[in-house]
Design goal:
By secondary structure, this protein is α+β, with helices and mostly antiparallel strands. The chain has five helices and seven strands. The chain folds into two domains: about 5-40, no CATH class; about 50-145, PH-domain like (Roll), CATH 2.30.29.30.
Length: about 150
């Protein structure tokens, strides 16, 4: 159910208006800073989401995912998620060895600390170029910060 339909208009108004007194004198910049401080605690803050279909996944990643899933990238790394955005597996950028794609598929090689070996993962997507570019942008930002 979409979040807006969880309550009636009157119920939403009651929930929001109880905070009005605390916030009425805050500037837009202060309100924005408060909002960012709150949402950046969420593990999915700043994540770019890509809807994909499995092509070739190792069992330990695939077991908790449906045929269609979400791949997310943020400052923490790569996240495999259910369609409900529940993170099932995460990998930092240091664990990503190689990646690339075509117009219909994206492949990535990830270090598996449990087996001390790499896992090859490939998925169907038309957004392989965007995914590859985003990984490179994050890795470049990490390297520039060190």
């Amino acid at each position: 159910m979409p979040w807006r339909e969880k309550f009636t208009d009157d119920e939403w108004a009651e929930k929001v208006l109880k905070y009005r007194g605390d916030l009425i004198d805050a500037s837009p910049d202060e309100l924005q800073a408060m909002y960012v401080d709150e949402v950046k605690e969420n593990p999915l803050y700043g994540t770019s989401f890509f809807y994909v279909r499995k092509h070739s996944f190792p069992a330990h990643i695939s077991e908790s995912l449906d045929e269609e899933l979400i791949i997310g990238f943020n400052s923490e790394g790569l996240h495999f998620m259910t369609l409900d955005r529940e993170i099932t597996k995460s990998f930092g950028y240091a664990d990503i060895y190689r990646w690339g794609g075509s117009s219909s598929q994206f492949s990535i090689i990830i270090w598996n600390a449990d087996t001390q070996d790499t896992d090859d993962v490939s998925m169907h997507t038309s957004q392989a170029a965007d995914m590859a570019s985003l990984i490179l942008d994050y890795i470049n930002a990490i390297m520039a910060a060190t």
